[in-house]
Amino acid sequence: MRMLSRPGIMLLATLPLSAQVSVLTYHNNPYRTGENLQETTLAPASMGGFGKLFAQSVDGQVYAQPLYMPNVSIGGVTHNVVLAATENDSVYAFDADSNTGTNAAPLWQAAFANPAKGVRAVTSGELNCINTAPLVGITGTPVIDSSTGTLYVVAKTVETTAGVSNFYQRLHALDITSGAEKLGGPFVIQTSVPGTCSPNFNGRVAFSPYRQFQRAGLVLSKGIVYVAFASQCDGDPYTGWLMAFNSSTGKLLSTFDDGPIQGPEPYCRSGIWQGGAAPAVDTSDVLYFATGNGYFNANTTGGNDFGDSTLKLMLGAAGFSVLDYFTPYNQLSLDQGDLDLGSGGVLLLPDQPGANPHLLVQVGKEGSIYLINRDNMGKYKSTGDTQIVQTLPNAIGGTWGMPAFFNGSVYFGGSVDSLKAYSLTNGLLSTSPTSQSTHVYAGYGPTPSVSANGHTNGIVWAVDSAGYPNLPAVLYAYDATNLANQLYSSGINPGDQMGPAVKFTVPTIANGKVYAGTGNTVEVFGLLPNSPNFSLAANPTSLAALPGTTANFQISVLAEPGFSFNGTVALSASGLGAGFTPTFNPGSVTGSNSSTLGVAIAGTVANGSYPFTVTGVSGAVTQSVNLTLVVTTGSSIVFPGGPLTIPGHATMGARFTYNGTLTQLDTIQFTQTGEPCLQGGTATPGYCVNGAGIVVVPGSSPVGSTSTFEATFGTTSGVWNFGALLMEVSGVSPIGTVQIFPANAQNGLGSSTPPTSLVLPATSLGALGFSAFSVTNPTITFIVPDTNYSDNTGSFVLTQAGARARH
């Protein structure tokens, strides 16, 4: 083995030194619940500032779940350490929090391949199987003994000497502080059991380091390291193996073969894959695991073949013994259809109330959920599975991995299916999902993990590996109370993109960070140092409404440029006081998104301007936007000093200042009169516009112009009809100008005696076309666009008609 490490490495007297969480085994604990209940940094509300922090490059695909150990002294420096194993037969230790300075390089690397000496990882071509390609080296997740600072891992190699190649699988015990071999290892794995399956020598089935595939995670329990094996691509001949090694000496203690007897089929099989899941272990040191397709005869006298079964084993002084098992009634169909029960791992549930306190959950390729009493697993019943606690047939897509458990819910990730949550109440699962993700996981589906602070702030994490082998993996996060609430996706921001996907990826969450392996990296996610990372906007910022109605504002959450933001922002309104009821729909938004704020106004609210604040909170980041709600029963615009005269030059218009707050609810009424022509005869073609806004040609019948022209008057800009009467209110956006009397047939176009005056009855500004607004002391301008600005004569007169008193 080649070692790359730093000098001056020492092991601390006690590991770990603090109460920081450790992830030392597959899916966090012996029950394989996948939950970290000591996560105090990551929470649904903090995900707004979550993103990719960095990635560390490795020399091969990372199928094994990364492990995490805090407070390890390496080179005189204390590090939180993340450990990863690759299919190129390397184990890496990285600083878990930084990739800068000296932490840019691995803390150490244990490389079991040494091409210069003819030692390398096995190629998929040599195995005639592309399920794991291009190399097969370390696949099963290692396990760590924190009390001795030892990491146990199995590596597969091919070694060529004098042109002859031999295949080996070895158990390595590595020093967690340096990667150096311990216990005098590594230990070549070789064993046999009585049986008739092949390869067979003198009535004993031999372990084949070439055929057997160490896929399931390793187990450490009470001084024993357990290692399970299946095969590559059902590459016969093979069987399922479970071996027990002394963790202090590396000595093989016992071997169990789950299918040693050749049945009527031309194979034996029954491998222990579990999609990488490690066998589960209860508090009595009893092991539970599921087997793949293969011969089954355990229901017959002396039968000891357990194809497509969930087994309960214990290691005693005489070796392994099967304490109990469950086999589905349709085992033969599962076997013949390659629908392995053992494609999924076994989840042990915490003690439950009711008649069956000790339960396990298991799902295979068929997607049926089995809830089994660990005290009486039911064995085999040909007429159905009624002997177990509960079956949910074909409830999810097939499983290549395992579910997770948190706070009374079991989370399942099926193939070509949504991530689904089923509640567990009084020892029974809900018959349908209580929530599910909108995202559908293609490929083999995910193995979810959970982070939480006790029973609060639960987040379900999953990696979509559908892009295998060339497209990026995608990390997802969900609110554990409702999987429809997606908190994060690494596929949104380019800076969060992961390395190429590998199958069966399991994320590891520890101390505010998420770790996941890819085809060539170990990815590290967490709360980004940048702050703030989002802003709030409102449209409109000021709005008028009548008492007894609801005023609606659009509240937008925007990712600020240069910042990653995919978190959940909780929205609230403050400062409105009695008589107002604000409601957000939805009450929180994820990423750059929007919510509608409806403010219900009681009928007793007095006219007035009511400022208030909308606040958005995501973790430690708080942003706000100020708004104004104008409650009014409406006022009538009164021209100052009587009639307004619009000068003949069309670009000037007539304007006056409205004293007070003006909204779209206020009304205006007037009569428009004027001289017959605004444009002198020098213009070509000599059109005129009379006081009614009618385009006429002197000496001929009235004609209208359908042409338009672009005009800019003050803040006015738009395309208007010739001769239209425009009204503009300053400070109103986006629609600050409207046509009151367009030059069109409705106003008399085509009449032999076109009108010379037009009457506007009392009309609200909103009805004229102004959008919702509220401005104080605006300037009101009236304009008549013409065909020639420099050649206008005459004037318009606007006379206020019967204005009512202001409220």
Question: What do you see in this structure?
Answer:
The chain has 807 residues and is an all-beta fold. Helices cover 1% and strands 43% of the residues. It has 2 helices and 66 strands. The strands form 17 sheets. Strands 1-7-6-5-4 form a 5-stranded antiparallel beta sheet, with no helix packed on it. The longest helix is centred in the middle third of the chain and has 6 residues, at 331-336. The radius of gyration is 38 Å and the shape is elongated. It starts with a strand and ends in a 7-residue tail after the last strand. Mean pLDDT is 86; it is low at 6-18, 676-686, 697-716, 745-752, 787-794 and 803-807.
Structural class computed from helices and strand pairing: mainly beta
Shape: elongated
Beta strands, count: 66
Residue stretches low in confidence (pLDDT < 50, at least 5 long) are 6-18, 676-686, 697-716, 745-752, 787-794, 803-807
**In this structure, how is the largest beta sheet organized?**
5 strands, antiparallel
Q: Which whole number gives the mean pLDDT?
A: 86
Q: Helical amount among residues, as a percent range?
A: under 10%
Strand proportion, as a percent range, falls in 35-45%
Report strand order across the widest sheet: 1-7-6-5-4
Distance between the termini: 90 Å
Enumerate how many helices there are, as a single number.
2
How many whole angstroms does the radius of gyration measure?
A: 38 Å
